């Protein structure tokens, strides 16, 4: 017959061991989160404390690769005029812009036409009409522009994003030459993506929460995950890549 006292003591030891293991696991996970947070803050300071002007910003058109900027649009976003105009004002000598809407009744069209008239020197095009290639409406919106783009480097940027005048030059500089022309020893870059920085335009609780999340926890985890390179973390709001032949 089993001794009840011995059995109780054995169960108590197992419970204590399990609690210890769980406590250690929680402590390790807490440490990992702190490490990722500090790594993200370090990378943010290292990368974005200074934004040097790329040499490509002042280079002539004959010496820089061309870029096709594609902006899918639908309706009137907050600050739409300023967001779109930021791509018309890039410090880069060779680029074109495609502004894509689903139909000729879209409310964004008057703003698009006003910007094109204001910046006649910029090679800008309006694409009206979607091409149904899948379930993603954004992809359907930009497919025609993708096919009509004159250049192999594409910059797909959402309508609610505003960018600094030097963003394109720095991004092309980071992307580097095509794989066939890359010097030996240089790391090959397939995609340049931009960390979103949010600013509030409406004094609502939801806007405040989203702004706080994107500019703190999301930003540091975004940078940390890409820094340790265990996986990729990419937001599809602004991405520059090279189209394969």
From TrEMBL:
InterPro entries: Ceramide_glucosylTrfase (IPR025993), Nucleotide-diphossugar_trans (IPR029044). This is Ceramide glucosyltransferase. It comes from the Eukaryota. It is found in: Membrane. Its EC number is 2.4.1.80. PANTHER family: CERAMIDE GLUCOSYLTRANSFERASE. The chain crosses the membrane at residues 20-44. It comes from Somion occarium. Pathway: Lipid metabolism; sphingolipid metabolism; Sphingolipid metabolism. Belongs to the glycosyltransferase 2 family. It is a multi-pass membrane protein. Its main location: membrane. Keywords: Glycosyltransferase, Membrane, Transferase, Transmembrane, Transmembrane helix. It holds the Pfam family Glyco_transf_21.
């Amino acid at each position: 017959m089993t001794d009840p006292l011995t059995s109780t003591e054995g169960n108590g030891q197992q419970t204590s061991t399990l609690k210890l293991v769980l406590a250690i696991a929680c402590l390790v996970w807490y440490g990992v989160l702190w490490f990722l947070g500090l790594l993200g803050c370090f990378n943010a300071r290292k990368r974005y404390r200074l934004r040097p002007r790329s040499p490509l910003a002042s280079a002539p058109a004959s010496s820089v690769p061309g870029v096709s900027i594609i902006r899918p649009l639908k309706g009137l976003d907050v600050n739409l005029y300023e967001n779109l105009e930021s791509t018309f004002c890039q410090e880069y000598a060779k680029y074109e812009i495609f502004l894509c809407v689903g139909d000729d009744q879209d409310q964004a069209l008057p703003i698009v036409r006003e910007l094109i008239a204001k910046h006649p020197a910029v090679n800008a095009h309006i694409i009206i009409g979607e091409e149904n290639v899948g379930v993603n409406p954004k992809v359907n919106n930009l497919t025609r522009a993708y096919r009509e783009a004159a250049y192999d480097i594409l910059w797909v940027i959402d309508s609610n994003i505003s960018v600094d005048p030097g963003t394109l030059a720095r991004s092309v500089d980071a992307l580097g030459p095509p794989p066939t022309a890359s010097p030996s020893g240089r790391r090959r870059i397939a995609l340049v993506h931009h960390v979103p920085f949010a600013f509030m335009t409406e004094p609502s609780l939801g806007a405040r929460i989203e702004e706080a999340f994107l500019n703190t926890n999301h930003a540091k985890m975004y940078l940390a995950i890409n820094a340790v390179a265990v996986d990729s973390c990419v937001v599809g709001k602004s991405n520059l890549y090279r189209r394969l032949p």
